[in-house]
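During the first year of the project, the team set up a workflow for recording each protein of interest as an amino acid sequence followed immediately by a discrete structure-token representation. This format lets reviewers and collaborators read both layers of information side by side without switching files. As required by the reporting guidelines, we include two representative entries from the current panel. The first entry is reproduced here exactly as it appears in our internal archive.
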Amino acid sequence: MQVMALAEVADLLGVSRQRAAILVDRADFPAPIANLTVGRIWSAADVQAYAEKRKQRLDGSGSS
């Protein structure tokens, strides 16, 4: 299983670490799989799926 910390989440989403810190606290963001002394970590597959849904929303897919 591949995992991501906040810095990798920010890179994948193309946002700053500060913005990523806000996004990971949203209800629609995947739950972390562990809380380590270095911080929370997420499943890379879960974050990738979130990124794809987010891109569709930002691109306006599905809107009239």
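The second entry, processed by the same pipeline in the following quarter, appears below.
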Amino acid sequence: MDDRLFKELKHIPILCVEDEDGIRENIVQTLEYYFDEVFEAQDGNEAFELYEYYKPKIVLTDIQMKNCDGVELIRKIRQIDKDITIFVLTAYSTEEYLLDLINLNINHFIIKPLNLKKLNEALLKYLDKDLKPIELCKGLVLDIEKREVIYNSNEIISLRKREKDFLQLLVKRKNSIVTYDQIEQELWLEKEMTTHALKSFIKDLRSKLPINIIKNIPQEGYTLIKEGC
């Protein structure tokens, strides 16, 4: 089993949605082997409330459920969150849903019954999905896997995990502002984020980068500078 599943998933919150109590309990027990935070819901309505409150990074959901099915849940989530990873538990009898699910940008389909092999494949896919190098600016590339920034193909700048995660967050929200609340929820998982801590973090990261690509939006947050790079 890939050691990354234990090292990199530990602090990632996940939401499990399944209407059959026994199946859901078994899945949750398995997920708790990898994740510290596992939230569970018995239908789409409860799941959406939990999603709005806890903002999990991954949603693992069944399709056929009472009250609010998986497709409706995913549609509601995708209206406000294009980036969250969504795994769908499905049976061959649910093929009529597949076109809708593909259009909703599902990250991975898991055919029931769920077992460790299928779950591991999905989780490894989650870990690998953002490993491609990202161009932050002309001549400035973020290597996710090595946790480095490469400048003009030859200067290598090492990053701490939080610095790498912050740059990724700026890229994901490149057409909008990354708010202070989003930064705290995404990056300050273990403690409260103070204004001083955030300012010191941004100052240190800017000092590492050869080009200033981080723009502060007063009283709102930060955004990625692309123009003029």
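For the second entry, the following points were noted during internal review. The first helix runs from residue 4 to 7. The domain at 4-128 is CATH 3.40.50.2300 (Rossmann fold). Both points are flagged for discussion at the upcoming steering committee meeting.
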